[in-house]
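Problem 12. The chain below contains 371 residues. Write out its predicted structure in C-alpha cell notation.
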Amino acid sequence: MKLKIPELQIGDLKARIPIIQGGMSVGISLSGLASAVANEGGIGVIGAAGIGMLEPDFAVNFHKANERALRKEIRKAREKTNGIIGVNIMVALTDFDALVSVAIEEGADLLFLGAGLPLKKPETLVSKTTGKVVKIVPIVSSAKAATIIFKYWATHYHYIPDAAVVEGPLAGGHLGFKKEQIANPDYTLEKILPEVISAIKPFEEQFNKKIPVIAAGGIYTGRDIYKFMQLGASGVQMATRFVATFECDASEEFKQAYLKCKKDDIIIIDSPVGMPARAIRNKFLDDVSKGLRKPINCPWKCLKPCDYRKSPYCIARALTNAKKGNLKEGFVFAGANAWRVNKIISVKELISDLLREYEEAALQKYNNLKE
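Solution.
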C-alpha cells in the first residue's frame, strides 16, 4: 500500500502534491500566496475578481484596472516560481471574457471557472506568452452541473474541460447551493463527489481523456485529504487554511479575524449577488441584518446578477475594504472550519503538516487492514 501522497496530473501538468490552493478573490490570493504554494509542489491560484483594487484608477476604470492588475500578478508569480499557477475567474463577472483573455495571453497554466456555468469556450486556449494550451477547470456543486458543462462542450466544441472541482457546502464565500441545502445530508461533499465522478466518466471514455476530479469545501487536515482521495478524488482544493499563512496576500486584520472567530461566528449570509455565502460575523454584517445599511449606487457593476437597487451594500467595496484591513466597512469570507485556525504559519509548514497527517491516515488504514 502506498503511504506517500500521490501526484496530481491534469493533462501534461504534473503537481508533485495534489493540493490546489483555492482562488480567493478581491486580493486575498495574489502572486505572493500562489507562488509560495507552487514552490512547495502544489497548484497556486490567483483570484481574479476585483483584483485591480490597488490600481490608482480602480474607482473610475474598474475593468481596465482589473485586467492590468491580473497581468501584473501573473507575471510576478512567474518571477517567483517555476511551479504551476492557475487563475480563478467567476463566470458571473461582467469582465469575465476580458479576464479569461488576459489569463490565457499571460500563460496561466489553468483557469478555474466557477460562480456560474462556463459554457463558452474561449476562442483560443493557446497562450501567446508560452505557446502552451491553458487547461480549463470548471467548479461545480452537483453532478447535474458537471453533466451540463461537459455535454455542452462535447456537443458544441468537440472538446471537454481538463478537470473539475467539486465544491461542497462547507466552503467559504459564495456557495452553489440553496440555503436549505447547505445543512442537508444529501448535499455533503462525501455524497456529491462520487456522483460527479460518475457523471464525468462517460466523457472520459468518449474523448479518451483522463479528467481528474478535485474535492473542495471544508477540507482542513491531511486526514481529510486522505478520506476524499479514498472516495475517488484525484486531489483537493483548500482555501481557508491558506489564509492563515504569512504569504497570504490579505491584510493582517483579515487574518486576525480567522484567529479570533469562534464556531458560532461563522454564518450564512444573503449575498447581493443572489447567492448564499459563508462569512465571519462582525458589526458590519450585524448592521446589514438589522437593516441599518441602505441601498447604494452601484460604483462598478462588477457582477451580472447583483441588483444594486435592492442591495444594502456593495459587496465588491466591502470585500475590498476587508482585504485592506478596514473591517468597519467590510467583512471576511471564510470556510466552515475557519474557527479551528489558531496560528499563522508559513505555506511550507502548512503543507508539511498536511502531508504528515495524510501519511499518518494512510498508515493507520494500512495497519488496520493488516490486523
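Discussion. The two ends are 14 Å apart (CA to CA). Students who got a different answer should revisit the alignment rule from Section 12.3.
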